[in-house]
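Show me a record, fold above all:
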Amino acid sequence: MFSKERLLKKYRNVKAKNGIVVAIFYVLFFCIRDSLNSLTLGFINSNNNLAGIKNILFIEPLNQGYGDLFFQTALFKYLSHHGYQVSVLARRGHSQLLINNPYIRGVYFWKPYDLFKILRSKFLLVGLGRNTFSETLLMLFSISSKKMILDEDLSLWISTFETKPNTLAWIILVSTMLKIRETSLENFIPEIFFSKIEKDFVDKEQTSLNIGIIYGVTDKQKRLKKMNNLIKYLSKNYPIILLGAGDHLSAQGIKGKNYINKLSYRETLLKIAGCSIILGPEGSLVHVASSLVKKTLVIDPLNNFKKNAHPDLFSRVLVFSGDEDIQMILDSF
C-alpha cells in the first residue's frame, strides 16, 4: 500500500515548503487516500494478457504538473513507434503541451461527455491507482476496457523512478509492463510541436537577440533571492523579456517586456522558442526551453533538473545552484 520511506519523503518535502502542521495533515490525508484507493483497486481487474491491444488511453495523473506531462511526451512517441495508437485524458490547461503532437490520436478532458465516451469505448487504460480517487473510479467503471495500473507493483514503481530520470522512468515502466523490448530508449526525447503559423511567429521572434527570464514562480524554494538585482543588471545590457506566472515581482527599474501573468502557457512556449537564451529556476518552462532554445541557464538549488530531465536535454543546459553562482551566471552571457 505505502512504505515508511515514502511517507517520510513526502513529510520532509511538504514540511520544507509549508511547515510541520501542514506536513502532518498532508501525510494523514495521503494515508487515508491511499487506503481507500487500495481497497478500490481490489475490485479492478488489471490485466496481465495485453497482447494485441494497440488502442491506449493514458490517464494523466491529476496531481502532476506541466513538466511531468512534457516528460511523458517521450513515452507517447515511444508507444507510437511500437505501433500503439495513443490518446490522453488530460487536464484542459495541460493539454496546451499536446497541441500538434503527431504521436497522439486524441485528447480527452475531465468533463461528462468525454468521460461517457471513455466508459463506452474499448481502451487499454494506463493510469495510476494511488494518485487520486477519480482516476481509480474511472478505471473501475470502464468495464469494456482493459487496465494497466502503473503503481500496482509499488516496489517496481519506486525503484524505477529512484534509479532513472523521470523521462526515461515512464518509458521503462510502461515497456516493462507491456513486455516491449527496446534498447535505445534515449532516442525518445520530450518534444513540443508547433503549427506552421506558430513556426512563422517563432522565426520572426528569432530575428533579434531576446533573453527570456522565467521569474514568475510560486514555489518559494525555487526563487533566487538576488533575482531582482540580476534582472536589473541584465536589462541594462541586454534586451530581456520576463515570463512566468506569479505576483511577487516588482518591475520597477527593469527595462524590458514584462509578460508575467499576461500569457497563456502555450503563448509562453512560443515566446520561449523565440528567445536566444533562457534563464530561470528548475520547473516546467526551463525543461521545455531545454528542448527549444540553444542556450538554457537553470537555477536549481534543489538539484532536481538532472533527476527529471532526459539525459540529452540535461547535456544542453548550464545548471547553477543559487545565489552564490550570480557571477558565474553573468559570465555565461
Summary: The first helix runs from residue 4 to 18.
